[in-house]
Structures are given as structure tokens and as C-alpha cells.
Amino acid sequence: MASAARRAQAEAVLAIELGPRARFFLHQPAPGSPMGLVLDLVERRLGAGSFDLYWLDLGSPELFSLPGLSPCPVVYSRRHLSLSACVRRVFSEPSLQQVADECAEQLALKLMAEFALRRGHVDFAVHAFLKSIVGKGIWLDDGDQTLVLEQERKGEAYMAVWFYGLLHELGHVEAARRQQSGQRLLFSDTRALGFIDVALAQAVHYPAGLKNEIRQLALAERGSSMVGLDQLQCEASADMFAAELLLAATQAVMQQDRGDSPDTGRYLQELVLLTQVVALMDRCRGTATVACHAGADLRTMASAQLLLPPVANAARAAMVASFLKLLLARWAWGDGFSEAQLATAGVLVDAAYAQFAPRVDRVEAGLSNAMRFALRLVPWPSLAEQLQALRSELAMPLCLDETQRFCDLADQLGAEGEPLAALRTMVANAARTHH
Ligand SMILES: [Zn+2]
Predict the structure, then answer these.
(1) pLDDT tens digits for 336-360?
(2) Domain of life here (predicted)?
(3) Can you list the positions of beta strands (E) in 223-314?
């Protein structure tokens, strides 16, 4: 099939996936821009014409690829970028240490609400949004962050926020190719199970029976469960691709910008942070999907949603950490690095993970609260009560702005329904009183 026909076919699939009102376009970055440099590096690795990047300007926080198609379409959105920057603050800002759980819970609920809106599940979306905003005490700006980001130094943080998630998706193109050509997995089963054991050892609250079940699941549902050995290796190889290309891209951009090189410690910190950010956003998408679709089996699915991701993430992190040690040693000392140099890189990598561990636990607590709410493991307040509570809070400009933005997103996505109509009327009335 000619490339124009293939592209038209991919765009038709994306239009179904993103909804009829979505405005996405083929992204052609300016040569020499950070995006241009990143895509050049990826193309050199994957070959020309292996992927098409689509940019979604308005709409929900999308970032996904469809590796079944060739060239593989990858969708990246302004909203995903803005929310990533906001979630990163929750994981990293010193002033948010004591309230990271609360911030994470609110942001996670809002993410779920936005994913649900795109899928037309208006009731769930409004419930989750109201839960995220009513009684909120800490207001982080989660509006469009692209201008703020552009004023930042083009360094390790800028590059990670902009490109880690995108590079992970592009890593799936390589992983799919490896799978199709029947190449071996990265790790043997024994080694991969070893990483799962590392993760299970960290899950101190899991009873022994559950740990056994997860170990069995890893082998029995290799390609379908998120703890399945094939699935884990597929995700980990996309993570490794992203880690490697992010380092090379940061080097290229910093070299061009100010003639300097990335700082290893800072690169590692940002990498650890962004893997957490992307994992949180993925889990919100997964939870929203389950919350919208599961019927009677919600409880079974809910326990899988709550129990498996922490183990899968920790196993992936252990796989990626083993790779990062090699990557850094090679980057610093070339292919002929010594055992002692590898050990030095190992200390740096372990320190980067350890540094964020307490914050990750705090965020996990908040995320888990949001998931319990979404999966109806706690009773929902009535919509009328929540709307009533919001009415008085709309006097606050920050609250009014956020609610307005949610209504705007619903409009962009063509979402309709009674609870949305009630919300829109309240916003219109509050805005009138303000002006
Ligand atoms: Zn992935």
C-alpha cells in the first residue's frame, strides 16, 4: 500500500479512537528544535518511516501508540504534557512533601475524570471531578504548561518532562518489531521471575498466598496480565529504549543550546521521576477504563487494579535499574568500563531510586484513595450533595477556573448529560456574579 493510503488508514483509526471532534495533526517539528533532534535520533534507531507522530492540541491527556500499524502512529497531546509537568511537581517539590498524598489523590481523580469524559462516561467523569475539587485546599496549576516549560533551561528536567513518555511509546515500536521477528526476550524466565521476587519482597503488606498467586500469574498469563513475564519485559524494554534515547537526546540538545553535557545525577533523578509520573497517569487511565466498563465483576477487577500495578511497577523498575547501571557506565567510561566503574554507576542508580522512595509511598497512598473511590470500594456521596457543596466554593476564582476548564474539555469532546448541564449552569451563574 502506498504511504499516503497507509497514513489515511491510520488517521481513520485514530479518529475512531479519539472521537469525531478530536483535532489532531501530523507533527513536523522544526529542524534543530528539541523535538526535531529527538525524532532524528529515534529515526536513526528505528529507520525512516517507521512511525508518525500526531499532536493533539485540545482534548484529554492522551499519549499512546498503535504498534499494530505500519508506520506506527503515536499520539501525544498538550494535555498530557501539562498534566505530566503538574504530577512531576507532586513527586518532587520539597514544599509538597507533607501533602503529596492529598495532591496525588486530587490529580488522579481529575485524570480519571478526563479519561472517562473522552469515553463518554459522563456520570463517572462528573463524580470523579467533583470528588477531586470539593473541599480542595491545595491548588496546583494544572492548566496549559507549555509556555512555562518553554521558559525553562533546556536541560535534564525539560527533556524528561517533554520526552520521556513519548520515547517510551516509541520504544513499543521497537519492542513490537522484536516480537514479530521472533527475537529472544531481554531476560530469561528465571531472571525475570527474580525481578518479580524483588518486587514481591517490597510488598510487605501482601500475604504469602497472594504473593504465590502473583508468581503463578506471571507464568500463566504471560502476555495478558500486567505482571505476566512477556508483558513486563515488553514494558521494561520500552522503558530502556526511553532511558537510552533520553540520555542521547539530552546530550544533543544541551550541546546545541549551551555547549554543555547532562549531569548524571540530575538525569537519573528526572528519569526516576518521569517513570513514576507516566506510571501514575497509566494507572489512572486503566482505572477509568475499568470503572466505566466493569459491571458485576467490578470487585474482582478492582482488586487486580489495586494489587497488581505496584508489583508490576517495582519489577519493571528493578529491570530498568539493572540496565541503567550498564548505560551509565558505558556513557561515562566507554565500552571498556571496569567492574569498579560499573559498581560506581550502580551506587548512583540505587541512590536515585532510594531518594524518591518515601515520596513515592506517599503518592501511592493518595492514588490508592482515588482508585478506591473510582472503583466504588467506598460509598459515593450523592451528585446533588456534591453539586451543592461546589456551588459555594465557586466563589473562589481558582475553583471557578478549574471547573470552567473541565466544562470546556467536555465541550471539546462533545460530552453531554444531565450532570454536565447542571455543572455548566452553575459555572455560568458564578462567572456572572464575578464579573
Ligand atoms: Zn508502555
Answers:
(1) 999 999 999 999 999 999 999 999 9
(2) Bacteria
(3) none
